[in-house]
Amino acid sequence: MTEQFYSAPADAIARRAAVRAGLKRRHLSENIFRISGIVAIVLALGFVAILFTDVLRKGIPAFTQSNISLAVTFDPEVIKVDPAPVRAGGQSDADFRAARLGWERQVAMLNWNRIIEAALRDAAPAGLEIDSRQILAIPETDARHRVREIFVNDPSVLGQTRTVELLASANTDNWVKGNINRDLGDNQQQLPAATRALIDAFEEQGIISQGFAWSLFTNVDSRSSPAAAGLLGALTGSMWMMLIVVVLAVPIGVGSAIYLEEFAPKSRFTDLIEVNINNLAAVPSIVFGLLGAAVFINWFRLPLSAPLAGGLVLTLMTLPTIIIATRAALRGVSPALRQAALGMGASRTQMVFHHVLPVTFPSILTATIIGVAQALGETAPLLLIGMNAFVASVPGTPLDQATALPVQIYLWQANENRNFFEARTSAAIMVLLAFMITLNAIAIFLRSRLEKRA
């Protein structure tokens, strides 16, 4: 009895020590887990911050562009062309159009670079020696088209002097923005010394100034005039493809999910379909590009680089995501809701469309918008159906040749004029991210509104 009386407290002390040690280990594990989670979040946010900072730092300067405000004289000694045709009484539309086109061809054959060169020399400081090639390196190469267009639209400017806003060339823009090291030797500079000196003089006089780069949104891609290259063609191509994805992927995906979840009999065949849909969601996007090239291009003979082919490929890629998300939303509905609807005499179809779908609509809509946003940023499948081709036009229909926004980023990133197109690439990435963030914001807004109504 004496030994038991004295051993009991010792056992209790040992148990308390064991319990304290266990608690200490549990607390240590919890602290390690909590700290690991915080470190992971901080690292993730840090990498995202580095990415966005780098993109913004490089891309923001591309939203401004150097412009040249030049007094251009439409010299009759250079512009020697017949007067613009005037429609005569009784002249048919076809005859007048043919006469007008013939006159415009005469105008196009004139030496418009001579007009621009004269305007630049008039604005240059006295005594500056510079040859024609060096001075014409200051404006963009499409400046002659801009001046010619003014004359074609208003031939009465002949003999007059007009102030014309011209885009500066990519090299001029780089020099003005300081993207080129001014301490490099002449043999390492992209512009001759006389050209650089004249650009600095024009900048001091206010002839060259910085403005918002509207051409980034109003022009299509260009190889002959890099400073005039824009995103309009790629944006329109992406819009066409997104329209095709929304029209095809949403009804097919949601309808398939409703059938599989609510109406399809449980069998090995439906299980096989479910497994394949889940596997398709994990297939790399480039495989969908190979499938699209084989089916839509080689079999159905759809035109290469067409938004229709790109939209169909992205539809195939988006369908598994929409089906899986919709089925998950349907499974989340309480069985009591279905049983109550059936108990009140509703048919199975009425139960699904009148009671289940309204509850799951916010989740389905969110999944759909996120799936479409993911498709907007895909590049690899579009490369395989020819959408990396150079297209300098805005697609008017889904069958016209076009490119897409992520593909345009890919093409600009590989341009050899790194000083200029590195910033343009980052600016295009900012535009693409703005679209994707907007779509996700719409999804969040609609979901919150619809959940409140539900």
What does this structure look like?
The protein is mainly alpha-helical and 454 residues long. Helices cover 66% and strands 5% of the residues. It contains 17 helices and 3 strands. It has helices spanning 2-59, 93-108, 112-123, 132-135, 143-153, 170-177, 193-205, 215-218, 232-263, 268-280, 285-299, 307-331, 335-343, 348-376, 380-383, 405-413, 418-453, and strands spanning 64-73, 161-167, 208-212. A 3-stranded antiparallel β-sheet has the order 2-1-3. It starts with a helix and ends with a helix. The mean pLDDT is 87.
Strand content bin: under 5%
Large-scale geometry: flat
Largest sheet: 3 strands, antiparallel
Gap between N and C termini, in Å? 71 Å
Q: Tell me the strand order in the biggest sheet.
A: 2-1-3
**Average pLDDT:** 87
What would you call the quaternary organization?
A: single chain
Uncertain runs: none
Overall strand count: 3
Number of discrete helical segments: 17
What can be said about this structure in brief?
The protein is mostly helical. It is 66% helix and 5% strand.
Layout: helices, strands, pairs:
Layout (H helix, E strand, L loop, with lengths): L1 H58 L4 E10 L19 H16 L3 H12 L8 H4 L7 H11 L7 E7 L2 H8 L15 H13 L2 E5 L2 H4 L13 H32 L4 H13 L4 H15 L7 H25 L3 H9 L4 H29 L3 H4 L21 H9 L4 H36 L1
Antiparallel strand pairs: 1-2, 1-3
Protein traits:
three-stranded antiparallel sheet; single chain; 17 helices; mainly alpha; 454 residues
